[in-house]
């Protein structure tokens, strides 16, 4: 890895981590576009990297803080996590079969929909 790549990874990691703890986003919303545009990763690489780096910090440090504050409904989280596990497996299988240009457009549309909903709902 070059020094530029290492610095880029440090910046992406810190920004995604802070935003994840602050507003609950970081993986797909922050890291994937930055991996693609700033580090030149393919869409498939960026999505895989995002999933890989979220595992340790999200499953321990961030969840620990929210648990300590009593902000996690564990029954609901269990139901969603089981289905998320199944959906993640299916979704990754599908994503790896889709052309990267199409996948990038799908990702962008999803981000746009979420952004518009956040901006225009009360």
From TrEMBL:
TM ranges: 6-39, 46-66, 72-90, 102-120
Subcellular location, record wording: Cell membrane; Membrane
Membrane topology label: Multi-pass membrane protein
Entry keyword set: Cell membrane, Membrane, Transmembrane, Transmembrane helix
Annotated Gene Ontology cellular component terms: plasma membrane
InterPro entries registered for this protein in UniProt: TM_pro_TauE-like, TSUP/Inactive_protease-like
Protein family (similarity comment): Belongs to the 4-toluene sulfonate uptake permease (TSUP) (TC 2.A.102) family.
PANTHER family for this protein: MEMBRANE TRANSPORTER PROTEIN MJ0441-RELATED (PTHR43701), MEMBRANE TRANSPORTER PROTEIN YJNA-RELATED (PTHR43701:SF2)
Name by which UniProt lists this protein: Probable membrane transporter protein
Native organism: Lutibacter oricola
